[in-house]
Design goal:
By secondary structure, the protein is mainly alpha-helical. It has 2 helices and no strands. It has a domain of 67 residues. 61% of the residues lie in helices and 0% in strands. The radius of gyration is 19 Å and the shape is elongated. It starts with 31 loop residues before the first helix and ends with a helix.
Length: 101
């Protein structure tokens, strides 16, 4: 039995905000919404991959069960990261809303 190497999990990086003086930051120009959508699509793809491998494992078509365990763990960690980022964004929004004008 051979074990295939596992590559790093790619987590999308959000482009930095343009400085107030308007100097370019060297980003590709993708908006925050686009970056967010790409991140959520990557999360969904990781869950679809884990679900597909789970179905293969249940039917006996999967030769190496560790492939499913790796995919399930990656999907779980990506979900935990997404939830943590969402919680921080909600906390920041609530803090802004509490500020006095």
């Amino acid at each position: 039995m051979t074990v295939a190497p596992v590559g790093p999990v790619s987590i999308p990086v959000v482009a930095p905000i343009t400085p107030p003086d308007g100097a370019p930051t060297g980003t590709s120009g993708a908006s925050f919404g686009d970056q967010l959508a790409q991140g959520l699509n990557a999360l969904q793809q990781s869950h679809l991959k884990a679900d597909d491998l789970a179905a293969q494992a249940a039917t006996g078509d999967l030769l190496d069960v560790h492939d499913y365990m790796i995919a399930a763990t990656e999907a779980s960690l990506a979900t935990q990261l997404t939830v943590a980022i969402r919680n921080k964004a909600v906390d920041a929004f609530n803090e802004i809303m509490r500020m006095q004008a």
